[in-house]
Structures are given as C-alpha cells and as structure tokens.
Specification:
Helices cover about 25% and strands about 25% of the residues. By secondary structure, the chain is α+β, with helices and mostly antiparallel strands. The strands form six sheets. Strands 3, 4, 5, 6, 7, 8 and 23 form a seven-stranded antiparallel β-sheet that branches. The chain has a six-stranded mixed β-sheet with strand order 10-11-12-16-17-22, sandwiched between helices.
Length: about 475
C-alpha cells in the first residue's frame, strides 16, 4: 500500500484526529507561549483513555489551529490546562504531568529521593484521632539503614509534633522535607508509650533494586521459594531473572510471591515475571490492552497484535527466562499492592491456581504511557525549549478472556492484616504472612484463624505519598500510529 492510500486509511479510521488536516501539525501557527499547552491538548485528544467523555477534548471542538490557540490562552499555566482536561478524580486518580521529564523517567525506573524508611501510618483506634507510624521495611545503604532503623519500629511524632487527624497538613508537609526527625515509641496492646528515641533522617537520590529478598524454605518434602518483589522496573529485569535462576536451581516446588509493598510498574516486566513463574504457556495471551476507541480502531485495522501481551521466554535484553513451570502460586498483598501487581494476579488466574493472602488490593486496572512534545509524542526529536512530559492513563488491562474489572481491588483468598505487634522478620518462616502461606501449602488448602482488624485504621503510607507510586505503564508508545503520516 503506498503512502497516499495509507494516509487515506488513517483518516477514515480516526475521522478528525486533532484538527483539520492542513492545520493539525503546522507548528508555525502555534505561538511559542502556547507550545506546551498545544502539546498537552493534542496528546490527550489522541491518547487519553476518557477522551470521548471529556467535551473539551472532542475532535470537532476546534475547526482551526487559531480556534485551539484561543482556547489555550484561557489557561494561566500548563498545569491548569492539564488538570481541567482530566475527568473527575473519582474516575482518573493517577494521570500526572511533570515539568521535567528527567524526573519522570527516573521515577518510572525506581529512582526517587528517600531516607530509606518505608512506612505505614494508621489510627491508634476507631476514634480516628491519634496517628502513629510503623516501619514496614528499610532500603539498604540509606540514612535509615545507617542508623539501625528496623522493621516493626513504631513512631508517633515527626519533628517532635505528635501526629493527629487534626494536624494532617503539618505532618504531611514534614514528610515532604528532605530532612526530618522521627520520635519513636513502644507499642503494647494498643498503648503507645514514647521511649525517648529520636532519629534524624536525610533523603538522598536513590535507585531501588526491587528484588528485595529471595529465599528457599524446606519444610517436610516441600521446597518453598520466597521472593519479595517491590516494583516492576525494567532496568532490574536481570536481577529478577537471576532470582528465579536461584529458585530454579533449588528445585522449588512452590512459590510465595510477596507483593505486599509493590505498587506497580512496567506491563512488559509484569508479563516477563508471569513467564518466570510459569513457562509452559509461552506465546499464549497473557493480557489484552483496551485503549480509547480511536486508538482501538487504528490498531484493529493496522496491527491487532500490538494490543496483546504474550507469555515470553526472554527478558528485555534477550536473555532466556528462568521459568519454574508452576501451576500454583501464593501471592501476598496489602492495600498498597497495585497496578502491575494486580495485573499479575488477574492475568495468571485463567492459567494457574492463584492463592491471594492478605487484604484487598488498590484497584488500579488502567495503565499509562509517557508523552513528550515531539511529532510522534515519543522521546525522539523532542522540543528542545522545554522539558514537560505527561503520564496520562491511556489503556485498561484485562486477562486473556477480557476480564479486567477490578477497579475496586482484588479480594484475597485468605484475609489477613498486618499485626503491628508482630510484623515478624521478612523471609523468616514464622513471619505471619509467610507463615500463613506455608501452612496453606502444607495443609493442602486448609488454614486456621488469621489476624484481622478494622479496615478503617489505615491512613497513609510512604509509597502513596510519592508521585508516580501507583503506575502501570508501557515503556514505549505502540509503533505505527504516526508512521503513515511521515
């Protein structure tokens, strides 16, 4: 098909893609002070998942570039425009924009400023008045690890200000500072008693290896692999594959995948992790992508395969995946477990037995892409005059059968809450969550009473307080969308 016919096909699929054809890509008609805003509107008009539901992104809203310019002039800042073009927060909780794409790119690969303490905040009791925090885990080689902060430690104040529901703005602002102090306490039966320990913590730039802990536990005739995995970062796929090489060499018969503190990441990396757990489904459909109707129409016409993620036998650099060929996996979850973590659970269910232990997950079944101010919205040939980039939600993820309605979270097979009085040592056979999984494996599906508490005590956690903490994303814009226009 020659380029002329391809162009005609594209226009027939999309109708009016942005504006009238002769005006659409004429950058010369966009004043320099509107260039960022023009990029925002056009990027969302094409890719935004809810484009059809946002009247201000309608294809026929503007007849000419001049009409669009007039509209854009009504917004004081790019941030104001981006916020107004998003649908209600109750629908879109996660689309974001950065004025410096370098920060965005770094965050998507596990880079952020931290003092190393990953924590949760919760109310002391059902009165929802006093708040305290507990340490969930510590990142190595950080301010917290250097000062011997450990999992399970309790703190009640920041910068010597006790945390309460009424002073939320104060403690939130303090946690956002690069340096702050925490005041610790002893916890006994719900009583919080200050113990005089105060620790100063300082944030530095950090790149997190999400493969936190790999361990093999031998009980009776079972060899149980344990993997604590805290983020789907493609830069660390080699380390993830090495962890599975370790488990495979140990001839594990069962796997406990700890995603309690994993709030998401790359769709491709999630597909590869699923392939490491299994291996017997290479080439079969792992997940299906659902975009807005314009994008769906284009790819259904041009390349439907772009809408499918398949089980694979290699990681991103081409190395062969170390697969365990399991037909059952135990997954540990909390309310932090989100996006790509939920994708793993939901998309493995049609293939193998998935036993979910813990609490209901976040409920994020939509994914994003990074859009730059370039002719194709990709990273090549970016506008050199600014560094704005968007990370809007553009697709939903479903399993091979099209099931993906878990926006309210995935319910556990076995309900269990974290017990502040007994968090246990991660990877240890007696750690409560892991112990429940082991007992379930040994008892062939039977389990005893687990620790359960009120669902209304959790307040906040360190990951959700960071921007981009709950992302599920494609690392590259699917190919072909703009090729016919070049």
């Amino acid at each position: 098909m020659n380029n002329f016919l391809k162009s005609i096909l594209l226009l027939s699929v999309f109708g009016v893609l942005f504006l009238s054809c002769e005006d659409r890509d004429d950058v010369s008609q966009v004043p320099s002070n509107l260039r960022v805003k023009d990029f925002i509107w056009k990027g969302l008009n094409l890719y935004y998942l809810w484009q059809a539901d946002q009247p201000k992104l309608a294809d026929d809203l503007f007849q000419t570039q001049r009409d669009l310019n007039t509209f854009l002039e009504g917004y004081e800042t790019p941030e104001a425009l981006f916020a107004d073009l998003r649908v209600a927060p109750s629908i879109d909780r996660f689309s974001v924009m950065f004025s410096d794409y370098r920060i965005l790119e770094n965050a998507l690969q596990g880079g952020f400023k931290t003092n190393g303490i990953e924590f949760s905040l919760r109310y002391k009791d059902d009165t929802q008045t006093d708040i305290f925090g507990y340490v969930r885990y510590i990142l190595p080689n950080t301010s917290a690890s250097d000062q011997s902060v450990t999992r399970g430690m309790i703190f009640y104040a920041i910068n010597n200000i006790p945390m309460t529901a009424s002073n939320e703005s104060i403690w939130r602002a303090a946690f956002g500072q690069d340096t702050y102090s925490l005041q610790f306490a002893d916890y006994d039966g719900g009583n919080i008693t200050p113990n005089g320990i105060s620790i100063n913590l300082t944030k530095t730039q950090y790149n997190e290896n999400p493969v936190y802990l790999t361990h093999v536990i031998e009980v009776d005739d079972k060899r149980i692999g344990y993997l604590m995995y805290n983020g789907f970062f493609s830069n660390y796929e080699v380390q993830l594959n090495q962890a599975f090489a370790q488990l495979k060499a140990a001839n594990v018969t069962h796997l406990v995948l700890d995603l309690r503190y994993n709030s998401g990441g790359s769709v491709n990396t999630a597909t590869r992790l699923a392939s490491m757990i299994t291996g017997q489904f290479n080439g079969q459909v792992f997940a299906r992508q659902v975009w807005n109707q314009k994008v769906m129409d284009f790819f259904n016409q041009q390349n439907p395969e772009q809408l499918i993620n398949r089980f694979t036998n290699s990681i991103g650099n081409g190395n062969t995946i170390n697969s365990l060929n399991l037909n059952k996996v135990h997954v540990l979850t909390t309310g932090i477990t989100a996006s790509a973590s939920e994708l793993i659970i939901n998309s493995l269910i049609p293939y193998i037995d998935v036993v979910q232990i813990g609490t209901i997950t976040t409920g994020k079944n939509d994914g994003s892409i990074t859009l730059y101010d370039s002719p194709t919205f990709g990273s090549s040939n970016r506008n050199p005059n600014h560094r704005y980039a968007m990370q809007p939600l553009v697709l939903k993820i479903a399993d091979k059968n099209g099931n993906g309605d878990y926006q309210n979270g995935l319910n556990p097979t076995i309900v269990q809450f974290e017990n502040v009085e007994n968090l246990g040592v991660l990877g240890d056979q007696n750690e409560p969550y892991l112990n429940t999984a082991i007992n379930h494996i040994l008892a062939n599906g039977r389990f005893g009473n687990q620790y359960i508490e009120s669902k209304n005590l959790q307040v906040e956690n360190s990951k959700s307080m960071r921007k981009l903490s709950n992302e599920m994303y494609l690392e590259n814009i699917p190919e072909g969308l703009f090729q016919v226009l070049q």
